[in-house]
TrEMBL record:
Keywords from the named record: ATP-binding, Nucleotide-binding, Transport
Protein name: ATP-binding cassette domain-containing protein
Species of the source: Bifidobacterium saimiriisciurei
Keyword Nucleotide-binding: yes
Classification via InterPro entries: AAA+_ATPase, ABC_transporter-like_ATP-bd, ABC_transporter-like_CS, ABC_transpr_LolD-like, MacB-like_ATP-bd, P-loop_NTPase
Length: 281
């Protein structure tokens, strides 16, 4: 399935956490105009763990930022937890992000001068609310960082830091957790542990998760893999295995599917920026 077709199968009858409707994001102007996201329609069901995979430069981070209200689309609409964010003021979008969305970044994004516990409590502190200590302790126990709560980030391993970031993302009971390459800075063992935690959060708590990754093995933990290429959805795989994702990526690389406008990159589009120019599609 290609481009801006409706990627909703498997979600019919399910409640929707996030929806993108013909979302585009273009950068630059004139001949240099590039569509980082070239018209994507996709629905993310509540409780579903989705991996967004694709080659470098394919538009994964841009799409994630649009879905999370961190960035504004050039055209199209994003609906988060039933709210069309194009109708909101910047302040209202900030509030929605703060109250309904959890983020996990590749480099953890912890505040170095706060302890693990204070970092986890941030979503509450920023809202001027009392942190729910019992919930936070419970999450910390599940993530095996309970005995690290008084430590500052530099006193923890990378895996522990990332689990603090996961605890922070979950503590506010968000509608959606967005993660951009959350295993990017971790070794294989810590990566697997983190992915198993995310898998568990979706299965047991019904936490909606949208995770960007370039790693087919990481994508295999998800319920669904959206393969992005040249700013479009190249494939939508239910219950992906690492082999499914790898072969989809390789298929694209070896024999590119015809793009609108007939552009087929010599390298299969894996790093092709030229084919992303507006005039060619
Ligand atoms: N602020 C920007 N200004 C201009 N072009 C941008 C900007 N942000 C992203 N792009 C371009 O948009 C395209 C998609 O970028 P994006 O960061 O979404 O890719 P990605 O799939 O996340 O890649 P990676 O796997 O390397 O992180 C790239 O060609 C990138 O150069
Ligand atoms: Mg990226």
């Amino acid at each position: 399935m290609r481009s801006n077709e409706d990627h909703t199968e498997g979600t019919i009858g399910c409640e929707t956490a996030v929806e993108a409707i013909n979302v585009r994001k273009t950068y630059g102007s004139g001949a240099a105009k590039t569509a980082a996201v070239a018209g994507i329609t996709a629905r993310f069901a509540k409780g579903q763990f989705t991996a967004i995979v694709g080659p470098s430069g394919s538009g994964k981070t841009t799409l994630l930022h649009l879905l999370a209200g961190l960035d504004t689309p050039t055209s199209g609409r994003v609906i988060i937890d039933g709210v069309d964010i194009s109708t909101l003021s910047d302040d209202a979008i900030s509030d929605l992000r703060r109250d309904r969305i959890g983020f996990i970044f590749q480099d953890f994004n912890l505040l170095p001068y706060l302890t693990a516990e204070q970092n986890i409590e941030l979503p509450f502190t920023l809202r001027g609310r009392q942190p729910d200590r019992q919930t936070i302790r419970g999450i910390a126990r599940e993530l095996d960082i309970e005995n690290r709560l008084d430590h500052k980030p530099q006193e923890m391993s990378g895996g522990q830091r990332q689990r603090v970031a996961v605890a922070r993302a979950l503590a506010g009971n968000p509608a959606v957790v967005f993660a951009d390459e959350p295993t990017g800075a971790l070794d294989v063992k810590s990566s697997r542990q983190l992915l198993a935690i995310l898998r568990d959060m979706a299965s047991r708590r019904g936490q909606t998760i949208v995770m960007v990754t370039h790693d087919p093995n990481a994508a295999a933990y998800a319920d669904r893999a959206l393969v992005v290429r040249d700013g479009l959805i190249a494939a939508d795989i239910e219950h992906p295995t690492a082999a499914d994702v790898t072969s989809t990526l390789e298929h694209d690389a070896d024999s590119p599917l015809p793009l609108a406008g007939g552009v087929a990159a010599g390298d299969g589009g894996w790093s092709n920026i030229a084919s992303r120019k507006e005039g060619t599609r």
